[in-house]
Amino acid sequence: MTIKERVFSGMQPTGSLHLGNYLGAMLQWIELQKTHECIYCVVDLHAITVWQEPAELRRSIRQVTAAYIAAGLDPEKSILFNQSQVSAHAELAWIFNCVARLGWLGRMTQFKEKAGKDREKASVGLYAYPNLMAADILAYKATHVPVGDDQKQHLELSRDIAQKFNNDYREQIESIGYTDGIFFPQPEPVITGPATRVMSLRDGTKKMSKSDPSDLSRINLTDDKDTIAKKVQKAKTDPEPLPSEPDGLKGRPEAENLVGIYAALVGDPVTKVLTDVGGAQFSSFKKTLAEAAVERLAPLTSEAARMMQDPAGIDRILADGSERARELAAPIMAEVKEIVGFIHY
Ligand code: AMP
Ligand code: TRP
Fold this sequence. Notes:
The protein is mostly helical. The protein folds into two domains: 6-196 and 310-340, HUPs (Rossmann fold), CATH 3.40.50.620; 223-306, Orthogonal Bundle (Tyrosyl-Transfer RNA Synthetase). 54% of the residues lie in helices and 6% in strands. The protein has 14 helices and five strands. It has a three-stranded parallel β-sheet. Helix 1 (19-32) links the parallel strand 1 and strand 2. The two termini are 26 Å apart. The structure holds adenosine monophosphate and tryptophan (TRP).
């Protein structure tokens, strides 16, 4: 059986989106919708693995949706919806809770980071988080998953789950007509954005993240022009001028990060950027970088803010996307239930 290419990805509605999300994920999502059938999900079930204030969560779901549309995601072409509206995600996640092994989850670095020292106090959901992520993807038999570098390990786990399910239920899978024994495909990570790992502006060895307590560490997609300029100005650097070749960035994580961000924003390779700016001081490069960031993000920020004036309009888009997603997942879930041995009508 030939497997149709289908793209799935998700982003958490927690806090505001930042430049790392934009360069690492959003741009790829938008590119892929030109060539593929794409399903994009605001993962609200994942969000509550750590405490979320309900009113703030609701606002965040709309905010993330608006940002993606403002950045160029077309909700008519691609399916855009929030996870909790399609029950297949939670149902399949439960089945995967029974397929995945405790040991597999214990190795996840994101859990270790997020749970911190006192693991006993982490929610069970935070531990099982990657199983839900596998369910997101496989409820649609998606084959390609565009993500930032940090999600690689979770995707490997999704592949392991797909494989174990196919092995455990091989006989039943074959008996319903999958003669090659492959019910779930092995989802491929697509980690090819212009900057797959954008680092913090305060520490070039740490990833730019929503959860960093310092707002100066990231550029949010909701920041205004002056805030962006201030954050870039305050970004950590070293005392040397910029090198004129990529080799000169070695061992200089902050310089490498800022040059990488600039290259991604203007769409040039790092080599070309360094040919142009090599020898310059950071003070002047930072001005150019801030201008590039503002030019790229300002239209997106204002369009998202405009959309936020009409929450019902955003909700309609999510409702429509959910309906289309439900239709795609339904026949797959019916087969899963058949395979596992549930009675279903
Ligand atoms: P999250 O905000 O954690 O739901 O992430 C949404 C998407 O953005 C995922 O595909 C992440 O891999 C990607 N992402 C998050 N932070 C970064 C970063 N600092 N650099 C590149 N990609 C990122
Ligand atoms: N875990 C991803 C993140 O934090 C978000 C996510 C949830 C996701 N489900 C997914 C990404 C399915 C890709 C596919 O970024």
